[in-house]
Amino acid sequence: MHRGKGMKFVGDSRVPAERKPNIPKDYSEFPGKTEAFWPNFLLKEWLVGAVFLIGYLCLTVAHPSPLERVADPTDTGYIPLPDWYFLFLYQLLKYTYAAGPYTVIGAFIMPGLAFGALLLAPFIDRGPERKPSKRPVAVGMMLLAVAATIFLTWESVATHDWEAAAEQGKIKAEAEIDKESEGYKIFTEQTCVSCHGDNLAGGAAGPSLVDTGLSPEEVAKIAKEGQGGMPAGIFKGTDEELKVLSEFVSSVTAK
Known about the structure:
Heme c binds at residues 192, 195-196. It is found in: Membrane. The chain is mostly helical. The protein is 47% helix and 0% strand. It has nine helices and no strands. α3 runs antiparallel to α4 and α6 crosses α9 (239-251). The chain is elongated.
């Protein structure tokens, strides 16, 4: 018998010469280590999901959303504040070359370049290595993005006027205002609504004029001479208009 007669060889002796069909194992031979997808596995997933859902609903009931007063489009002094996960973009728009005439740079170009770089990172660094130390480009871009986001978020929180924000968001008593009255017309003509709002509920730029407890004479004096953050000379009307306005403001009471 010649050497190798009737035998089959391949280049690597560890590879069988005859390929066998790839038939999945019958996991029934491993009792206790497998289970049916329905209903066993799926039922457990549903139970875990239900526990988290009930817990989330309990937190929602215990800590409801901190709603503010009804939005007033005439309140130009209102200081808006986005949700916490957008604070870094909000802070970015406060810088010189990302705000004002450069808003497009801060709102579109810079965030677009940053997120675009993160999206391109897997295509730029296509090496087979998985260790962070072996992937300096991808890791460096990610660390830079995380550091910038954390810094801008912290800067936004540290520089925001939280006391003024809490004051401007308070739900205040509403008043029944006759917007057809002569006093209200003078109120709008003198641009009082820009600080005190169209419902006289006030805002960040001016206090509420509802239930002030001031007499018409006191209101007229403040309108002419100013008080607090309100400078003198704001009112530009006649004495007759001032009298009508002061009587109107003094008479405004909550419902």
